[in-house]
Amino acid sequence: MTVTCRTYSPEPFFSQDQKLVRDFLLRINHAELYDPNFTWTRWEWMTTHAALDQSMLSRIGLWEDEGHLVALATYETSLGEAFLITDPRYRDLIPSMIDYAKEHLSNENGLTLVVADNDRVAQRFAAEKGFMPTTKGDHTSAIDLDNRFDYTLPEGFRIISKEESWDWYKYHRIMWRGFNHEDPVPFDEERIAVRKQMLSSPMIRPELVLAVVSPQGEYVAHCGAWYRPGDLSAEIEPVATDPDYRKKGLGKAVVFEALKRCAKLGAKQAMVGSSQQFYYSIGFHPIHHESLWILRTKSINT
User: Fold this and answer.
1) Fewer CB within 10 Å, N side or C side of the chain?
2) Which CATH superfamily is 3-138+290-295 part of?
3) Within 10 A of 58 (CB to CB), how many other CB atoms are there?
4) How far apart are CA 210 and CA 259, in angstroms?
5) d(Cα 216, Cα 219) in Å, to the nearest integer?
6) Alpha carbon of 45 to those of 40, 251, 260: distances in Å?
7) For 152-172, how does the pLDDT look when each residue is reduced to its tens digit (9 = 90+)?
8) pLDDT in tens, 253-283
9) May I ask the CATH class of domain 147-267?
10) Comparing C-alpha atoms, which of 81, 80, 82 is closest to residue 71?
11) Domain coordinates in residue numbering, the chain
């Protein structure tokens, strides 16, 4: 076994290295969820996300064994936080990956490692390298897709998909208002181009990009779902509801419609990177938690 480390290509969006990482994440999570916090769906969403610092892509580290990708050290949107993902057979790479992350993925405030709470091996290595856990972290929740997902929309409301028709201005509006940005909604062409960019992944299935349409024709709730037929799990990302239309069951309805469609395609469960009470109230349950680890020399606010 001869493992070599190299840096990721600086080419943005869907480069050969982007596809290489996607295939790696697909492979290690195909039979079972080895790393539910950072799956191929998170990688695809990250690739097109407007918040991603594209100028730092070459800081991402790739470890290969005879041309096969076996480990990845990456940030998600900007330097300062590191995700370390390995093939299960290459866990001994973690110490050198932590060293790489400290050198290449730190920012002016240092480095935070994302470490699974049930991963005693990675925790031990992180502690040996001078890191300690904090109370902050990431949550993953899931729901089994062996249930019926019945819902009722208020009179005059309906659900459409990107496969049927799609209005980019209405999509921008629901994403802007649904994530609680202040009015008025800016409708410049640059922002619309960003929305198109964020739905440009070739892995997106248009029938899984959904919106609730009001009687007035506005998109008032949205749910995107990611699924590749043959995989165990689908993923829900993102979900948003216009503040003026909350508490009407629209968020639940559009998520349930997405779950029904994923189940029809063959998914056995669906995940979401959240611990919000909304998801628990409609049937999701917590399955995974990762804590943020910082260097012991870094101060913690109490």
Assistant:
1) C
2) Gcn5-related N-acetyltransferase (GNAT) (3.40.630.30)
3) 13
4) 11
5) 9
6) 9, 20, 22
7) 999 999 999 999 999 999 999
8) 999 999 999 999 999 999 999 999 999 999 9
9) alpha beta
10) 82
11) 3-138+290-295, 147-267
